[in-house]
Amino acid sequence: MKHYGQSNGLPNIQIYDLLGGTDHMLYLGTANGLYRFNGIRFDRIAFEGQPTSISFISESNEVIWCKDFSNRLFYLRNDTLRELTQLPKPLNSGILVNYQVVDSNIY
Questions:
Q1: pLDDT band of 12, cuts 50, 70, 90
Q2: Bridge-partner residues for 59, per DSSP?
Q3: Does pLDDT of 93 surpass 80?
Q4: Gyration radius of the chain's alpha carbons
């Protein structure tokens, strides 16, 4: 059994969420953003805009979704996290605590 820590690649000791993706990768939401682990190395996923802490990771229709602590929603496309800026009014009110993406619909 191999143990991972910052000395052998773990990106941050503050991990807020984990997800095992259908692509057999492990996704980690950290204080430094979203990371992907392939069993050998950790890769930081680039942000299209301003980097942020990531949590609440989920997957729907093979798309990775996540959220930051300001309730901004992001989706992974072409190895880049992109912010979903066109939110329906109830989700844009600032009071959303959690969300779920099912069949590309946000609840």
A1: confident
A2: 64
A3: no
A4: 14
Residue 9 has pLDDT above 90, yes or no: no
Measured CA to CA, the distance from residue 92 to residue 28 in angstroms comes to: 25
Q: CB–CB of 100/93 below 8 Å?
A: no
What's the rounded mean pLDDT across residues 59-81?
A: 89
CA-CA distance, 57 to 81, in Å (whole number)?
12
Residue 36 tokens, joined: 């992907």
The DSSP letter of residue 45 is P
Indicate if the pLDDT at residue 96 is higher than 70.
Answer: no
Strands 46-47 and 80-83 turn out to be: parallel
Q: For residue 39, give both structure tokens.
A: 């069993």
∠ CA 49-65-7, nearest 5°, is 75
Beta-strand (E) ranges in the chain? 15-20, 26-30, 33-37, 42-44, 46-47, 55-60, 63-67, 73-77, 80-83, 101-102, 105-106
